[in-house]
Write a structure and sequence with these properties.
This protein is an alpha/beta fold and 670 residues long. The protein has 19 helices and 20 strands. Helix 1 packs across helix 5.
């Protein structure tokens, strides 16, 4: 009776929702198609993904945005065209990767179920088998952390699920986020809402189809109506704005910053990635697939996203290098290992503990069985030809054969250990880098200064983490250190003869993608190391975790994690005295991050790092510098800083304006 009453209530809600939709559609039509719907797209090119969610990827005035490009400056137009070409290139690369991958599987869960279970799941890329004959499980309400070694196929698996290369039921709508929003005329707010409007239209069409095919009492029809009610157009603006603000956008226009009504074409790639992430969260699909969602986010936005996703009520699969993030979000760990998928309940720390306990027990049983086998073999060997012992020997031999037939225990699998070190470097007299009354703005105008009066030094013992909101000047500060930007006031001095090892967020983009790793490294450093032979270069790149079968594969076919390893090999060959690193963990796997932390701690030179990975900063940072309208030192460690992030006014009050490092130069930060 209770089930019948609940179904009748859902039917009544469905009828009411349908009437509301009709009224809303009539109101939009009367208003001339405003508000960012399809009628206002003015020739925009659209691409529909596997979930049916349509993605605007160019075109003119977008959905009521009303901002034509006629009066835009030529440089802005050129920048937008360049960004559009970059997006098109990424689309082409993704299409090429998709066409070269192959996935198979059999759906064994109920077609109408919210839970998805696919047996005999196999996946290959460029002819290389990544996953073989395993089970892919996606259970409603579970938040999965997908982990594995670089190049094992994590991103490829997400792409094949999103493209429905495996039998995901039609009623499970998916959204896969792996790239930024296109540089279009939509504002951030319009771009986010536009996706939901089109998803709403898709659901309305699906509900009408299900109503005809299955009737008003079908669970699938009622689920589609529930999904429409959940989207609720009356809350579009407020909900989308809240997500964008959580990801770092200002609710009101600000100079030299990103805000919710700023057009996507005027944003950097990092901010457009935030727009794309906001869109994915706003649509709230049944199956949300996120590939490194914390890339391009500052620590504050990471904390907000972690809290938001920890409450995601449907199916979530995340690829992330951040143990801290996985601990805060995930309920189940999905591990790609030995071409299989294995599942462990709990977050990342619970997975590590449970796996360690199981491995210990398995090793104990394995050693016990091996000792038993050794005893049996020793007894058989000792029997010789004595007639009274032959019968016992044959009995023991049968026992041994039975053990082999039943299957011998194996030792637990041990993940390959990847470790590298930066080369030893000679200590140089401090400071390696010194700032003297430095002020800077990109316009050169005093009223636009990101900071002024900076006076500090960095030496070989410095271990500095730069934190603070996006746009405050963290990356700009590193660019000043290497001379890429010139100060508007004051001066920056670098120690003569110093070599700088620099990693920045776009390091992978300057690699020669057509070259192989072996050819790239050997040609770039041949003049510096003329005595080295091909086998020596193979040894170098092998040390940084590129296995031999990758050495002669064009770089464009490497995963982003393997490209990062190649970049670190390049940095090491420069024999740096100081490391300046801007988000070095973005494409690194956990093994790489562990190795990176150990290598930094052993490094004899100075280190300045920007990262949203709390675990890395916890291990390597001795000083936390907050970059926000100047530089302040945080009076505590990175954990206490993370705790303070939700209360930003308190964070600023806790920071103390003292000299950033204990060097001879006094500090005057404003």
């Amino acid at each position: 009776m209770a089930d019948k009453a609940a179904k009748e209530e859902r039917k009544a809600a469905a009828a009411l929702e349908k009437e509301k939709r009709k009224q809303a559609a009539a109101a939009r039509k009367a208003a001339g198609g405003g508000g960012g719907g399809e009628d206002g797209e003015d020739g925009a090119t659209t691409v529909t993904d596997a979930s049916g969610v349509t993605d605007a990827s160019g075109g003119g005035g977008g959905g009521g945005g009303g901002a034509g490009g006629g009066g835009a400056a030529a440089t802005a137009a050129a920048s937008a065209r360049a960004a559009a070409r970059a997006v098109a290139a990424k689309d082409a690369a993704a299409a090429a990767a998709a066409s070269s991958s192959m996935a198979t599987g059999i759906l064994i869960s109920e077609k109408r179920s919210r839970d998805v279970k696919i047996a005999s799941f196999s996946l290959s890329l460029y002819g290389r088998l990544l996953v073989e004959d395993t089970t892919l499980e996606m259970t409603w309400g579970q938040r999965y952390g997908l982990i594995g070694m670089s190049g094992c196929g994590k991103s490829t698996m997400l792409k094949c699920i999103a493209a429905r290369e495996v039998p995901v039921p039609e009623h499970i709508d998916t959204y896969f986020l792996d790239r930024e929003a296109p540089p279009c005329d939509f504002t951030a707010l319009e771009y986010v809402i536009d996706s939901a409007q089109k998803e709403l239209a898709r659901l309305e069409a699906m509900a009408e189809k299900l109503l005809v095919e299955l009737g008003p009492d079908s669970d699938q029809y009622l689920d589609a109506v529930d999904r429409q009610s959940e989207l609720d157009p009356s809350t579009f603006v407020s909900r989308a704005s809240a997500i964008l603000v959580g990801l770092g956008f200002s609710p009101v226009p600000i100079k030299d910053g990103s805000y919710i009504t700023k057009q996507c074409k005027d944003m950097s790639g990092g901010w457009r990635m935030r727009v794309a992430l906001a869109r994915a969260l706003f649509v709230s699909p049944s199956l949300l697939l996120l590939d490194e969602p914390t890339n391009h986010l500052d620590l504050e936005a990471c904390v907000w996203l972690e809290d938001y996703l920890s409450k995601y009520p449907k199916i979530l699969i995340i690829v992330s290098h951040s143990q801290d993030f996985l601990n805060g979000v995930c309920t189940t760990m999905m591990v790609m290992q030995q071409r299989k998928l294995r599942y462990w309940g709990g977050n990342y720390d619970m997975y590590c503990k449970t796996r360690a306990d199981q491995d210990l027990n398995q090793m104990t049983q394995f050693k016990k069985q091996q000792a038993e086998i050794a005893d049996i073999k020793a007894f058989i060997a000792s029997c010789g030809t004595y007639s009274n012992l032959v019968r016992q020997a044959k009995s023991r031999e049968k026992q041994l054969n039975k053990m082999v037939e039943d299957g011998l225990l194996t030792a637990p699998y041990v993940d390959p250990v990847f470790r590298f070190n930066f080369p030893e470097t000679s200590k140089m007299a401090p400071p390696l880098i010194s700032f003297a009354d430095v002020a800077f703005s990109y316009s050169g105008k005093k009223e636009d200064y990101l900071f002024k009066g900076l006076r500090f030094g960095i030496d070989s013992d410095s271990r500095i983490a730069l934190v603070g909101p996006n746009g405050a000047g963290k990356s700009t500060l590193l660019k000043l250190m290497v001379g890429e930007n010139a100060p508007s006031e004051g001066g920056v001095a670098l120690r003569s003869g110093m070599s700088i090892g620099r990693y920045h967020q776009h390091s992978a983009e300057v690699l020669d993608l057509e070259a192989t790793p072996l050819a790239y490294i050997s040609s770039k450093f041949h003049d510096r190391y003329p005595e080295r032979k091909p086998e020596d270069w193979r040894s170098v790149i092998g040390t940084y975790g590129l296995e031999s079968h990758f050495h002669n594969l064009p770089i464009k076919y490497l995963s982003e994690g393997l490209k990062t390893r190649l970049i670190f090999a390049e940095i090491s060959l420069l024999q740096p005295h100081i490391l300046l690193m801007d988000e070095p963990t973005n494409a690194a796997d956990m093994e790489m991050i562990d190795s990176m932390a150990m290598a930094i701690n052993k490094f004899q030179g100075g280190v300045v790092v920007i990262s949203h990975d709390f675990r890395l900063l916890e291990v390597v940072a001795k000083e936390i510098w907050i970059v926000d309208k100047g530089i302040k030192i945080w009076d505590g460690d990175i954990r206490s800083y993370k705790t303070s992030v939700p209360a930003r006014p308190r964070a600023r009050a806790c920071a103390r304006s003292v000299r950033p490092s204990a060097h001879a130069l006094p500090c005057a930060c404003h």
